[in-house]
Amino acid sequence: MSFPRVQTCRGELRIHDDLDDLRTDLVEYISEISDASVKDRGVFTVALSGGSLIGLLGKLCDAPYSKTVDWAKWYIFWVDERVVAKSHADSNYKLAKDRLLTKVPVIPSHVHSINDALSAEEAASEYEFGIRQLVKIRLINVCDITDCPKFDLILLGMGPDGHVASLFPNHSALDVKDEWITFITDFPKPPPERITFTMPVINSASNVAVVAIGASKADALRVALNHEDVKSDSLAFPARMVQPTEGNLVWFADKQAALKLDGVEFCV
């Protein structure tokens, strides 16, 4: 099955007829990057977001991926996390565990979640320390330009307001440049305490995928992909700030999310 792919000035865009088509393409995309990373480096480092994005990964648990993906080489991280107990309904870790991690043979010690017994500030600091140790031994690559960790793949959802990870419009966390992980205690949506990758880390990845589903994301996707230079407004629309330094960016959208793309400049 093939899917429309167009090149925009903000990365590749793949538009899908329905959610099932999007799931199929997204899972195949992840599998391909996993295979390439394992072949090239012997490991695959992937950072997940929470929410509806995790629900799209269910096909990874089915054939052929359950058998063909080299799960023992996966190292899993979280782009952002709610500072709640791992058993809490709001935990991104719990969501991924219930829907994916318990259904595939990932090695438990390769799953790097936050310490939920700490405060948001302490959890962010400890999480960054752990990632720095993995960078030192080159399990995680480093971006030569930014000197940030270079994950093989970062998976993001996008909110109707253009937020990605736990980076909301006009929040001070968007200004953090000298830390890999930052913390938030006043998140606009509950729960208010969270940790999140900073934008320099997101933009240092080898591959970044952003998923937009539903008509509620149509305006956000149009703004995110618009070719006009709106750097002055980027803090008001975090998805505009997702521009990998030396990596690839792919947007996955269904037809509802792509409803308002008239006027977006597509490259030949």
UniProtKB/TrEMBL annotation:
GO CC entries: cytoplasm
Alphabetical UniProt keywords: Hydrolase
InterPro entries: 6-phosphogluconolactonase_DevB, 6PGL, Glc/Gal-6P_isomerase, NagB/RpiA_transferase-like
The Glucosamine/galactosamine-6-phosphate isomerase domain, residue ranges: 18-251
The reaction(s) this protein catalyses: 6-phospho-D-glucono-1,5-lactone + H2O = 6-phospho-D-gluconate + H(+)
PANTHER family named among the record's database cross-references: 6-PHOSPHOGLUCONOLACTONASE (PTHR11054), 6-PHOSPHOGLUCONOLACTONASE 1-RELATED (PTHR11054:SF17)
Name under which the protein is recorded: Probable 6-phosphogluconolactonase
Organism: Saponaria officinalis
